Amino acid sequence: MYIEAVPNRNSPPAILLRESYREGGKVRKHTLCNLSDWPVAYVEGLRGVLKGGTVIPAGQDAFTVTRSLPHGHVAAALGTARKIGLDRLLGPDGNRGRDLILALLIGRILDPVSKMAAARMLSPATAACSLGEALGLGEVDEDELYGALDWLGERQPAIETVLARRHLRTGTLVLYDVSSSYLEGRCCPLAQRGYNRDGKKGSLQIVYGLLCAPDGCPVAIEVFAGNTADPMTLAPQIAKLKQRFGLEHVVLVGDRGLITEARISADLQAAGLDWITALRAIKDLLNSGLIQLSLFDQRDMASITSPDFPGERLVVCRNPDLAAERARTREDLLAATERDLACIQKRVERQRAPLRGTAAIALAVGEVFNRHKMKKHFDLAITDTSFRFARKTAEIAAEAAMDGLYVVRTNLPEAKLDDAATVRSYKSLGQVEQAFRCLKRIDLQVRPVYHWLEGRVRAHVFLCMLAYYLEWHMRQRLAPMLFDEADPDAAEARRESVVRTAQRSPAAVKKQTTGFTPDGQPVHSFRSLLADLATVARNTIVTAITPLYPITVVTRPTPLQQKAFDLLGVAV
After folding, report:
1. Could you tell me where the beta strands, DSSP code E, fall in 377-427?
2. What is the structure's pLDDT at 53?
3. Rounded to an integer, what distance in angstroms lies between the CA atom of residue 338 and that of residue 358?
4. Cα-trace Rg, the chain
5. pLDDT lower than 50: segments of the chain
6. What are phi and psi of 18, to 5 degrees?
7. What is d(CA 283, CA 300) in angstroms, rounded to the nearest whole number?
8. Which among 428, 427, 445 is positioned nearest to 436, based on CA atoms?
9. Which of 73, 175, 517, 553 is the most exposed place for a label (fewest CB within 10 A)?
10. Is cis: bond before 448, omega within 30 of 0?
């Protein structure tokens, strides 16, 4: 039997219940009932039954969603990890330790939490997303995660060696920089007091150095005790590059606080490596007359040599934008210092309850200088009953002459790397700083560190580096949808000079000003796009027909979400 709609000229079609049969070798139709007066819903319901469907009693739902877990961001991160071979890099298929580490580093991107919270997030009964289910982890406890961290720590040298083979070549640039993070507790032997970059003076911390490829892709990271001076981290990296990674020659790019004169002579020259860094102080070059400010009337970059730096090339740069900003900042600080010092002067000179005593006046003045850091620019005259101050105009003018000036130094001849390429290479350290921002603040939150064992602290930091490695690859693919620069060549073409401030490409500017991509989709940050993808849910459904056999259904992505999956090359 079947239902057929028969056209009826100017009237609505006739809805007939029919059956077909054969007679004399021909197919005949026999009308059983006229359903034209039935409501459409009844007709469609009967049509479904005739096709083999099941009638569900009134008041009973056709299906019930028993659980719904955020899934889209998991599919994006896990799919990308498999696309770039990160899972195979960590270990073979079927290795539970590998799967736990993969879950931890993906979880670091999705929602950075403690290991105990991560165990809850991955376990089926308390899952916060579909990550544990997608990896088939089953029940997970924190002791397993600590064991997986120990497993990762043992494999760190082998993993970094593979990453170096992927992203570094002999003769290439290698970017290196150092940062620090505070630790909780006092039990870790690495936890020491040192120069604190987190603004937590007096806190115990660790220091870690990050090696990156020329494009900013992280390759290796090493953790040092918190009281390790930045230059003292350089020698282990040189040994790592030459011995473990097997790179005969590279150009190491580091900031002025890392590649010092002592490290150049003791480490870099002994290893036969080239280097690019910057001078820590340029006043002597100005005083010696080697740097003539008139050089920068018509240009912003000049190459010089100095007998104090034999065999080196010094590229002197002057950024007028930076000069204007420093001049404005200095004048603001000088004016603020003068206002506060004038208040102290009034306290000393007032008739009622004046401020008296050289020590008391000096303490008040010291508080002002501690606040604004302008002591070197003022002459002071303090007695028990008076206080006078004045600007050091000559010293201020001498400092202003150096505004916007910096000197990049290298031992590479100009034939190998010209001045513009040398400055551009030094400025590429900004990509390592971006990595530190992601590691410490924006996305991955390496701190606070609660681990006490030295090996687990090292493994935790390495885990965060691997998470950034995955995020870096995701950002590269998703750049057309993000506020990130998607066309660096076009951006570089808009730059007046390598010394001047970097510019954004026309496409990036349009994304930023309009908030939409060229195809009309909203532009996202990396975090907001992950939050959008998380709305693609993985639902567990029980139907009225087969209540004992639940099925899994993934909600259909929106066009924007589908575009993200297509850019990443993953399926939901």
Report:
1. 378-382, 387-391, 405-410
2. 76
3. 19
4. 34
5. none
6. -130, 165
7. 18
8. 445
9. 553
10. yes
Q: Is 59 left (phi over 0), alpha (psi -120 to 50) or beta?
A: left
Give the model's pLDDT for residue 420.
Answer: 92
What are the structure tokens assigned to 318, written together? 């002057």
Q: What angle do CA 286, 402, 293 make, to 5 degrees?
A: 60
Q: Are 365 and 343 in contact (CB under 8 A)?
A: no
Q: What is the rounded CA–CA span in Å between residue 217 and residue 174?
A: 10
Token duo for residue 373: 């850091």
Identity of the amino acid at 404: G
Q: Are strands 251-253 and 173-182 parallel, antiparallel or unpaired?
A: parallel
The pLDDT assigned to 496 comes to: 84
Cα–Cα distances (Å) from 450 to 103, 183, 211, in that order, read 19, 6, 24
Q: Both tokens of residue 96?
A: 């539970």
Cα angle vertex 177, ends 172, 179, to 5°? Answer: 160
- Crossing angle of helices 115-122 and 142-167, rounded to 10°: 100
pLDDT of residue 1: 85
The H or E element that residue 469 is part of is: helix 454-478
| Long-range Cβ pairs for the range 342-351 (8 Å, 24+) | 344/368, 344/387, 345/387, 345/388, 345/389, 348/385, 348/386, 348/387, 349/386
Q: Give the number of residues written for the chain.
A: 572
What per-residue confidence (pLDDT) applies to 458?
95
- Measured from the Cβ of residue 259, the count of other Cβ atoms closer than 10 Å reads 23
Cα–Cα distance between 527 and 76 in angstroms, integer?
13
